[in-house]
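Re-run with default settings, no changes from the original entry. Doing this only to confirm the output is reproducible before filing.
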Amino acid sequence: MRKRGFCRSAVGAVVLAAGTLVTGAAHAQVAETFGLADHRIAAPEKIESRPWSERLGLDLDAERDFVGQVMLPPVDVDRLRQEDAERDPWDKVLRWGVGRDIQVHMTDGRWHDLPGIGRLWVVDVIAAEALAMRVQFSDMNLPEGATLHAYSVADNRKVAGPYGGTGLFENGEFWGPTLYGDQTRIELFVPQQADMQFAAGNEFFRIGRIQHMYRDPVQEAFQDGEDRGAGPCHNDASCYPAWADVVSASAGVGWVGTNSLWCSGTMLNCTANDQTPYWLTANHCLSSAGDANSAEIYWLYQRNGCGGSIPSVASVPQSAVCQVMGTGSASDYTLLMIRGEIPTGLFWAGWYSGTVSNGTNTTCVHHPDGDYKRISFGTKSSNSTNYVRINWYDGPTEPGSSGSGIFRDSTQQLYGQLCCGISACGSETWDDYGYFFRTYPNISSFLAGGSDDNQEQNDSCASAVTVSSSTYNNLVVKSVDEDWYRVNIPFGNTLDLDLTFIDAYGDIDVELYDGCGGSVVGSATSGTNNETLSYTNIGPAADFFVRVFLASDTRAEYSMTVDVVGGGGAGNDNCANATPITDGMYTFSNVGATTDGPSEMRCDGAGSATITGDIWYLYEATCSADVVIDLCGSSFDTRVAVYASLACPTGPNGALACNDDFDCNGNGDVADDGYVSRVAFSVTAGFDYLIRVGGYNGDEGVGQMTVTCFTGPLNDNCADAIAIGDGLHAFDNIDATTDGPDEPSLCSNSGDTQVQSDIWYRYTASCDGTLTVSTCGTPYDSKIAIYDGSCPSSPDSAIGCNDDFDCNDNGDVADDGYVAQATATVVSGNDYLVRIGGYEGAQGAGAMVVFCTPGVPMNCPGDANGDDMVDFDDLNVVLGQWGTIGPEGDVDDDGDVDFDDLNLVLGNWGTTCP
């Protein structure tokens, strides 16, 4: 907080210099930049880490004893408001929360056993009537693999964590983010394999202090009709479209000192236009590493258009944790670099480092009283050595406005940040700002181009830096400046690449190319704090190229470990040394690998249940859905097994899933695929699974493995058709894509010739006759196509197709829901593909009936019972099944039993077939 005496002495200097331009040490050349719009496109969101209770479906609120509690009583809000009202009127820093001591120990929480998984500890920290809370974690030292999450019980959409080891800054000390509501729940998960010590007095961390937020300007502005937010004299920043860019560059900042404080600030452009997230505020707001570590930047906290809705502080995008790049009290500045991820759609404001003439029209965008953005207009009236004075003619500032920028109207370039002043609603007088002319020499090296690492310039494949087996620290990647590395991999050797970073500070992904301008042969694109990639070179020794890039954010830091090891099962030959992987593509070799896993009867083939020459991988699920592990394209007879545990299997037949041979091309023949493997299994996000890859009966070689967390139907593609037989089968084409061809001849309806959002099934005919597939009763507009043999590649390949079918035979397909029923002639023992989809992409869940009706010899029409005679027995069959789909009574094979079938029997009455 700015000291009263210091602020007023600065103002006195300004008054003495009124009307005089004080230049001090002259700049050799005036530096400046202009504003820069965000060039990024919003990336698809990756699945965030969720608390373990949610992953496991635990209802912690079902019984009171499930959760420990530590509670603080309410604060005296009226007293705090009185203190706020009595503050120095020159002070422009806002207090919006107070620090409170509390003691939370491991003994205050409740432990829950999770058989086969680990243990879960839960406690609620309650600050009665708080609008929001921040929790300070101290002395954190979690066991290996343990993770901590925190979230509001009232609103768990925002989850803090996962935190591990010694915490966010690797020193055991950090503040969690602001969580809204008066009850914060903390969950600590310790996996089964960790060295867990639960003796009394053991502490994995402690909580000794919280911040109790008692102000929410938006909420207060509408409480009991009393205007408690910013004063009524302010201008809504959203009503001035000419300043929309600067408005997008401005933001509020909350941080923790003794209490929770609030200021304003501005994101600044670099002369290199590289979108480094530099953010300027005031020194009297925050200046230390501790202040910056606890900082939270609140973006786009403004009305949704002029006169539009007002967002709550809790709902706007936030960036957590900053780094002090430069700070000084002389011109009252602090330049921060935002480490936490920043949202898209922002703006980097330009700045001017020269002197500014008196009378210059000036604008300020700020958060008065911590409220949504306002805009004020004035003129520069005077300056001292380090400060400029702005006389307001339309809109003042208030506490919470400190650190906000002033801009020349002519160019919208920043030339100062708010220090202090006496302006307020009812007194739109003047305020003083730190002079950027004096600040710039202290931060010019940063604003020249943003900081980077010593591997530059390696921002393209052509300029890739050569690396070898080693660990490279303090690396930087930017959205406008990717990192490229060249690594040589000898024949049969494996590249193991491991990137470590903080995903909340920027989501980093990695790809491996087989040459400069070549193809991607490996990738890792998770939403975790690690990206791991493993690739075995099955060709001649060659240079491969590593591309490190940002999936989101504009700048992030990372470390990279490169390890090139020989073949022969090195590294992950044994289960205990399983290679960590995520979703992506991996090459592998089990040449020379030993066998250390047990036999698996689920993989029994030709009398052998052993997976020989096995190598191991450790996979952390990135979704709660289905995962497919695909070895199609491998060069030898593979086997793959999956275990739902971090612990290596010790007994036989413990695999969650296992496969020996898979029909990769969907033609019903596993031999032409090389007897490779593919397995699918259900997972829970955040859980670990062991993947075991080996061979059949001692086979070994090189291969390719693709791991995909698949949120759509497993049989979305024809090659993944699920085997079915006669009977009733549930199905679901929700989120399915379309990979089959048009069927204009058999399935055209109102111009739609495609079976969209299709899923696939493989059916082995149980008879010589007619295959019928019906979705009657399904609650969406479905389509069915039937194919003979392999996956279709061209239009009009279906041997049977139907869009709308009259299930109840009343002449109206609408009351049946526009469902489908398709038929095709089949031969017993042959394979057929059944394709279920929807009209114009309709999706839903339902059930299909599949049955095979034995065919009637072509030289004996009307013979319903198959006794080679057309007589009363056949007539009884038809009449007995009248109005149904048969199947025996449907002698004309058109899908229903009606007058056509009766006429066929009567027309051939008395016929005896040879």
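The longest helix spans residues 4-16. The longest strand covers residues 94-104.
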